Amino acid sequence: MKTPILATTANLIANWQLLTTFTSSLYIASLVASLFASSVTRVFGRKPSIHLGGAAFFAGSALGGAALNVYKLIFGRILLGIGVGFANQSVRPPVPLYLSEKAPPKYTGAINIGFQLSIVIGFLLANLINFGTEKIKSGWGWRISLAMAAAPASILTLRSLFLPETPNSQIQNGKDCEKAKLMLQRVRGTNDVQAELDDLIKLSESDSLLSAVVTGVVGTVSTFISMLIVYKLGRRALFMIGGIQIFLSQIMVGLIAAQLGDHGGISKGYASLIIIFICTYVTGFAWSWGPLGWLVPSEIFPLEIRSAGQSITVAVSSLFLFISAQTFLTMLYHFKSGISFFFGGWVMVMAAFVYFLSPETKNMPIEQMTKGWREQWFWKRIVGDVRIFLMVD
């Protein structure tokens, strides 16, 4: 027979497991779907992946809004994950695959970051919707919030029917090169820190949603700024600036959390200070690692392996999102304030990788990216060896 304390602990653990499964199921489904989406994109073109992704988004949103139990909610999240996998393959990295192939080289960065701007605007709108539906007294607000995702899914699916294929895809699939030429002539005339913020600040539910709106506004403005400065500063510089911002924000939040300890509450002064550092984090992410994490991979792959490369990009992203979502609550329970130092350390590892190993893609057409690899101090030896091997073969 369980004591009340043990029973409460068991229920809490069970709820955590359902919560993490609900969150992480989207990412693991996205990972698996992205692997199949690569073949669909390569063989049939970019548009079919957009159709499939939009249809899966619509089905997942509808099921989420109508779900009668948590398992149907999880199944709806899985459908959303499938939509993410296909849409990421055809829209997100082929926004890096679709937009990068259709945009003039000098506008590639701004147009791709414009896609990221659309994402953060979507986050902001979602937070505003959640803020509004939370006030519905009947308890149906969450259903409306989940079901409303079907609206952009419908727009994505229907609008994609009128999108032309990219010239690169037409050539890659052995279609009429003359059509690709005409199309080319026409187009040449370009994660989430909210859960952590909510747990740290421990405000009321309404205030928590309001803080999500605040960070959403900050992210939207910062992403727009990224569109304006990406050409002047370059990709590597933005990666480094954003990385330093994110690192310092994580360290400061960790220090404040360590100072407060487990008091079960927080003063308005400390809460405001944490919001400032979280907004600093969001700003750094929104004008660097957020958009550039999708833009740069879309620019560095040659046409022959671009679809496979983007598939790997989506799969790796989904894998680590799944791992983070599945382990975050457990890590927060054991690490407490140390979780900020943990993630801050990994940000520095990422920044170091970019500094030493990432080539600059600023003002470089994707068709000439091989030159960028040959000019990078480390990769030029590997690219050169591959070229020699191919010539000998």
Q: How would you characterize this protein structure?
A:
- This protein starts with a helix and ends with a helix.
- The radius of gyration is 22 Å and the shape is globular.
- It has a single domain (16-163, 191-362), classed as Up-down Bundle (Growth Hormone, Chain: A).
- The longest helix has 41 residues, at 4-44.
- By secondary structure, the protein is mostly helical.
- Residues 1-10, 90-95, 187-205 and 388-393 have low confidence and may be disordered.
- Helix content is 82%, strand content 0%.
Q: What is the structure about, briefly put?
A:
This protein is mainly α. It has helices at 4-44, 46-66, 70-90, 95-102, 108-133, 141-147, 150-160, 167-172, 177-188, 194-201, 205-233, 235-260, 268-300, 303-335, 338-357, 369-375, 379-392.
Give me the secondary-structure topology:
Elements: H1 4-44, H2 46-66, H3 70-90, H4 95-102, H5 108-133, H6 141-147, H7 150-160, H8 167-172, H9 177-188, H10 194-201, H11 205-233, H12 235-260, H13 268-300, H14 303-335, H15 338-357, H16 369-375, H17 379-392
Membrane topology: Multi-pass membrane protein
Pfam families: Sugar_tr
Family: Belongs to the major facilitator superfamily. Sugar transporter (TC 2.A.1.1) family.
- In the CATH hierarchy, the third-tier topology is known as Growth Hormone, Chain: A
Q: Tell me the helix content.
A: over 70%
Low-confidence stretches: 1-10, 90-95, 187-205, 388-393
Shape assignment: globular
Q: Write the CATH architecture name.
A: Up-down Bundle
- Spell the H/E element sequence: HHHHHHHHHHHHHHHHH
Average residue-wise pLDDT: 75
Structural class: mainly alpha
Count, helices: 17
CATH homologous superfamily - what is it? MFS general substrate transporter like domains
Distance between the termini: 73 Å
Largest sheet: none
